[in-house]
């Protein structure tokens, strides 16, 4: 009898404790269930690896009390994922990978949703861009390229991916700044662009440091310039475009957004948790391995940045003839 | 190259291959015209060489030419006794039922959730279309949906649709 | 270090108990992923990336590579048993594999698929370890004009995929090319025939179309004649599970040729296992002394595409390891995995991480042996599945097709694509249009168009770019030969027939 009373007391105590904890968590509120992280690209791409790294880090470092579940919704340069998340208005349990296509795809596809349908949460990093030539190319600097292209309009070929992509914007920036005309050749993937450059089928190619620096080290290619304000730490001998008289700046961001209209405190929780993630070891290793530059922005500043880029793209894509 | 429909000579003549080929040819011919017209609406290319309209337009012409050939070839063929192309209505019934079941499944899977919808579809196909005994139907339906869900969701991490019941 | 010493060292790495275990896990998982329709090696490898975070780089990549080539083994299983292509690279296997199953020779088909996969896979690894760097340079010589010539040649193969009517075969191929036009045109950014549907921006999903045309259409055809037993009842004796002497004789040369062909196509970034399997099948049909047997259960029709897709998977590792250039969707994911594990893919990988590179290569030898040991006993198990009555099998085929198609991109719309193409496939079957040329057109269409337009962009619209470059010129010549030969033969035959008719 005694023991059973004691058991009952213990059970009640445990129950009370559990309730208290539940209330405690409830006070903090969000998140009470797993967070869905929607990836706008296919499994295995840059955004997917970013998302899966984040989810795995959360399992270990627990910056959110609930797990992050990654789900790929690829297709239409992000259009499918964007429409999906835009439709989850007010639900803070959805996150979406946000790179440049979040700005360009709705613009080019005349989608019924836009930046206003997403709540910027945070930006983590930026991918830098470089312009490269084959090692035995006649072009040694951007000046050579410009001089040759001026004399031979549309003779210099540039390899890159789909029109409207970062590659195509990078090529366009050179045309615009130097007042030249290049011949842009569209390939299916970055890998195919690099193969075409190495095979001598195109003269120039736009590339990320991750790919370009290893090829440069092996003396297969040379980098003519980087689209950043300062030279990159990993490639101090590559001059910036600005140094060569071209005001061509370009980065692709890696951030996360949530659906529009989510509660302000949930946004705060997400932002704080993700900031904690950027201080962990997993994040540092991810940045190093993928040769990304850290560019932390909290929600409001990321939002402002997106707005600014939106205006810039509207201009660029219009001139490129991609907006109707 | 020319195909004669020898072999099975049962069934009526109404939907023989000769007739079927002619109808197919007409449908494809009209389709090609639509394709060609739609292709002309595409914007011209900004770069060298053919633009986005080039391939579909010429495929339209090619398909139209092939359709005309098929039509003429069928007309030249002697209208001999031929097997009917499509089975009688009674044999088409299970196909229609399967199609309807599948369409209902695809429409409802996000509402009912994968487990329930798959179980129902399996049960429908087995119990109604195939007229299997109900005990067998039940066992197979439950086992199939549970196994598929376990393999795809639990083992492979596919995010199968969860319904309003939460599974 | 010379190659043999390096390879020996690689085996030391690969044979460590941990690596051996994870190689086994990788190939087993790969087989499963291959067996299941929809989920392909690309998704399989991607799922593993976070799982392998805790492992060292070599072990992690050994596991993922195992999934990749393991999936090529498994892909044939459902193709043969129930006409559901497990992977895009095993669509061709359905043509003869399923016919063999209907004749009660499923075991033989499955066994030959495994053996052919083993031989071709091992051949590819030998080539990979011996001559990877020069091969990579050969691959780089393929620019847009060469890709155009290659894929155009591939398209002309519809003539050999046609059934009894050449005309209907060509029409089916053109139909495939037309549906391949749907989606955003990458070169101009224009939307083609998407009808404002965002799910069509990337065109029709290949798996949805293939499963519809083959698997769902087959279900409908079988439903028509419900009374008839679809499968011939077979005595599942052990003997009937393995290829007999005649099967071996028929298959050995095709396996050799498709190993070579598949490997070279796989090395090219921008081609890949699916195209390799189409080409190998068409080549064997062209070279065969009895091409009319293809499509009715010829064992070469199973051995060739299955060999080619495994060899291509090995070939795709060449540009990945020597240049850091991914040649296929799956190797692109592997490249990402390299980065995650702190490896720097590129031309220096062999020098900077010899343990890793040679360890992975050696593990592929081991993995192929493991796969053969794993798959041969499974043959009996799979084949006995066909003893399940068709009435029960039918709902299983329909549901697994639907979930597999969904799993490709987590997309309900793809199920509708499968549904629609199931109906189209049924109509095509009844009207005697072969489905294989349509699938060939769908796969090759975008490649042909893109490389044509790339070439003409580079040449400023000058068509001579295709004939002034040697590789391209040779391939174009082959293409015209293969295109014209059957037409000339047919015209000649009809005119002779007519003369014969006139005489009688």
Molecular structure report:
The complex is a heterotrimer of chains A (324), B (167) and C (504). Chain A has two domains: 162 residues, Bordetella uptake gene, domain 1 (D-Maltodextrin-Binding Protein, domain 2), CATH 3.40.190; 115 residues, D-Maltodextrin-Binding Protein, domain 2 (3-Layer(aba) Sandwich), CATH 3.40.190.10. Helix content of chain A is 45%, strand content 20%. Chain A contains eleven helices and eleven strands. In chain A, the strands form two sheets. In chain A, strands 2-1-3-10-4-11 form a six-stranded mixed β-sheet, with helices on both faces. In chain A, strands 7-6-8-5-9 form a five-stranded mixed β-sheet. Chain B has two domains: 86 residues; 67 residues, no CATH class. Chain B contains five helices and no strands. In chain B, helix 3 runs antiparallel to helix 4 and helix 4 runs antiparallel to helix 5. Chain B is flat. The N terminus of chain B is likely disordered. Chain C has a two-stranded antiparallel sheet. In chain C, strand 1 and strand 2 form a beta hairpin. Chains B and C meet through helix 1, helix 2, helix 3, helix 4 and helix 5 of B and helix 3, helix 9, helix 10, helix 18 and helix 19 of C.
**Spatial shape of chain A:** globular
Number of helical stretches of at least 4 residues of chain A: 11
Specify the structural class of chain C.
Answer: mainly alpha
Task: Encode the helix/strand succession of chain C as letters.
Answer: HHHHHHHHHEEHHHHHHHHHHHH
Which pair of chains forms the biggest interface, and how many residues does each contribute? B-C, 70 and 67 residues
In short:
The complex is a heterotrimer of chains A (324), B (167) and C (504). By secondary structure, chain A is of the alpha/beta class.
Give the helices and strands, then pairings.
The complex is a heterotrimer of chains A (about 325), B (about 170) and C (about 500).
Chain A: H1 2-28, E1 35-39, H2 46-61, E2 68-72, H3 79-86, E3 94-98, H4 101-108, E4 118-128, E5 130-134, H5 142-151, E6 157-161, H6 166-178, E7 183-187, H7 190-198, E8 204-207, H8 209-217, E9 221-226, E10 251-259, H9 264-278, H10 281-289, E11 293-298, H11 299-319
Helix pairs in contact in A: 4-11
Chain B: H1 17-40, H2 54-76, H3 89-112, H4 114-129, H5 134-155
Helix pairs in contact in B: 1-2, 3-4, 4-5
Chain C: H1 3-14, H2 17-35, H3 41-51, H4 57-82, H5 91-102, H6 106-140, H7 144-156, H8 158-161, H9 166-180, E1 183-184, E2 191-192, H10 206-224, H11 238-241, H12 245-267, H13 273-287, H14 300-323, H15 329-340, H16 349-352, H17 354-384, H18 390-409, H19 412-430, H20 436-458, H21 470-503
Antiparallel strand pairs in C: 1-2
């Amino acid at each position: 009898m005694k023991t059973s009373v004691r058991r009952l007391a213990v059970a009640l105590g445990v129950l009370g404790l559990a309730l208290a904890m539940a209330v405690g968590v409830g006070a903090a509120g969000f998140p009470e269930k797993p967070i869905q992280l929607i990836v706008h690209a296919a499994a295995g791409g840059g955004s997917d690896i970013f998302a899966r790294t984040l989810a795995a880090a959360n399992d270990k470092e627990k910056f959110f009390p609930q797990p992050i579940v990654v789900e790929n919704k690829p297709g239409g340069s992000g259009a499918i994922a964007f429409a999906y998340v835009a439709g989850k208005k007010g639900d803070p349990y959805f996150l979406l990978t946000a790179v440049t296509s979040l700005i360009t795809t709705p613009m080019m596809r005349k989608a019924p949703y836009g930046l206003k349908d997403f709540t910027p949460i945070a930006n983590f990093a930026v991918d830098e861009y470089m312009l490269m030539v084959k090692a035995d190319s006649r072009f040694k600097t951007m000046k050579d390229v410009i001089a040759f292209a001026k004399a031979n309009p549309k003779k210099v070929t540039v390899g890159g991916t789909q029109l409207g992509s970062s590659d195509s914007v990078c090529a366009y920036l050179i045309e615009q700044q130097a007042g030249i005309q290049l011949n842009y050749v569209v390939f299916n993937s970055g890998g195919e662009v690099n193969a075409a450059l190495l095979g001598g089928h195109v003269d120039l190619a736009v590339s990320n440091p991750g790919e370009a620096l290893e090829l440069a080290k092996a003396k297969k290619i040379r980098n003519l310039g980087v689209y950043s304000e300062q030279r990159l730490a990993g490639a101090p001998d590559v001059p910036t475009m600005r140094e060569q008289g071209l005001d061509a700046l370009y980065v692709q961001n890696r951030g996360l957004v949530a659906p529009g209209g989510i509660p302000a405190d949930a946004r705060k929780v997400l932002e704080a948790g993700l900031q904690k993630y950027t201080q962990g070891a997993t994040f540092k290793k991810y940045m190093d391995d993928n040769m990304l530059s850290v560019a932390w922005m909290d929600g409001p500043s990321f939002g402002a940045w997106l707005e600014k880029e939106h205006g810039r793209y509207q201009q660029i894509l219009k001139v490129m003839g991609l907006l109707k | 190259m020319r195909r004669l429909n020898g072999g099975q000579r049962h069934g009526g003549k109404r939907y023989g291959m000769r007739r079927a080929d002619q109808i197919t040819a007409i449908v494809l011919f009209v389709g090609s015209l639509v394709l060609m017209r739609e292709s002309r609406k595409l914007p011209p290319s900004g770069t060298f060489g053919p633009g986005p309209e080039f391939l579909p337009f010429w495929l339209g012409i090619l398909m139209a030419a092939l359709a005309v050939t098929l039509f003429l070839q069928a007309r030249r063929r002697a209208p001999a006794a031929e097997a009917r192309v499509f089975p009688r209505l009674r044999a088409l019934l299970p196909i229609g039922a399967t199609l309807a079941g599948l369409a209902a499944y695809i429409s409802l899977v996000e509402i009912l959730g994968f487990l329930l919808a798959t179980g129902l579809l399996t049960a429908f196909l087995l119990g109604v279309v195939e007229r299997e005994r109900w005990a067998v139907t039940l066992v197979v339906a439950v086992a199939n949906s549970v196994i598929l869900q376990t393999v795809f969701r639990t083992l492979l991490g596919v995010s199968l649709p969860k319904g309003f019941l939460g599974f | 270090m010379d190659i043999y010493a390096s390879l020996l060292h690689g085996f030391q790495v690969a044979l460590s108990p941990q690596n051996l275990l994870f190689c086994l896990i990788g190939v087993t998982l790969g087989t499963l992923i291959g067996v299941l329709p929809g989920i392909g090696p690309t998704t399989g490898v991607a799922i593993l990336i976070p799982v392998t975070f805790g492992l060292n780089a070599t072990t992690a990549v050994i596991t993922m590579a195992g999934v990749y080539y393991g999936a090529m083994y498994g892909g044939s299983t459902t193709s043969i048993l129930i006409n559901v292509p497990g992977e895009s690279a095993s669509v061709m296997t359905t043509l003869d594999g399923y016919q063999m199953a209907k004749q009660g020779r499923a075991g033989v088909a499955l066994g030959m698929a495994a053996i052919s996969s083993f031989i071709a896979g091992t051949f590819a690894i030998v080539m990979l370890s011996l001559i990877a760097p020069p091969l990579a340079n050969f691959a780089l010589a393929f620019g847009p004009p060469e890709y155009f010539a290659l894929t155009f040649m591939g398209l002309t193969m519809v003539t050999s995929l046609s059934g009894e009517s050449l005309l209907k075969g060509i029409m089916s191929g053109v139909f495939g090319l037309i549906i391949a036009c749907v989606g955003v045109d990458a070169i101009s950014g224009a939307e083609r025939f998407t009808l404002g549907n965002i799910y069509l921006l990337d065109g029709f999903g290949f798996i949805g179309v293939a499963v519809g045309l083959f698997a769902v259409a087959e279900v409908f055809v079988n439903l028509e004649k419900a009374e008839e037993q679809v499968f011939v009842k077979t005595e599942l004796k052990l003997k009937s599970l393995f290829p007999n002497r005649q099967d071996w004789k028929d298959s050995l040369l095709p396996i050799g040729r498709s190993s070579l062909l598949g490997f070279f196509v796989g090395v090219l970034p921008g081609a890949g296992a699916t195209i390799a399997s189409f080409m190998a099948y068409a080549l064997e049909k062209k070279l065969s002394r009895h091409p009319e047997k293809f499509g009715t259960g010829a064992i070469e029709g199973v051995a060739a595409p299955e060999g080619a897709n495994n060899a291509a998977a090995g070939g795709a590792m060449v540009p990945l390891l020597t240049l850091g250039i991914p040649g296929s969707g799956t190797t692109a994911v592997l490249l990402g995995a390299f980065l995650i594990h702190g490896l720097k893919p590129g031309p220096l990988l062999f020098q900077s991480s010899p343990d890793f590179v040679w360890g992975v290569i050696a593990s592929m030898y081991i993995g192929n042996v493991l796969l053969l040991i794993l798959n041969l006993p499974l043959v009996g198990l799979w084949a006995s599945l066909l003893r399940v009555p068709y009435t029960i099998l039918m709902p299983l085929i329909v549901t697994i097709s639907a979930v597999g198609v969904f799993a490709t991109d987590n997309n309900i719309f793809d199920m509708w694509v499968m549904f629609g193409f199931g109906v189209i496939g049924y109509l095509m079957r009844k009207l005697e249009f072969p489905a294989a040329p349509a699938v060939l057109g769908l796969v090759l269409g975008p490649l042909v168009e893109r490389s044509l337009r790339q070439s003409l962009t580079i040449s400023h619209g000058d068509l001579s770019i295709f004939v002034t470059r040697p590789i391209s010129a040779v391939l174009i010549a082959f293409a015209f030969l293969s295109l014209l030969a059957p037409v000339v033969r047919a015209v000649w035959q009809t005119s002779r027939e007519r003369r014969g008719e006139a005489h009688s």
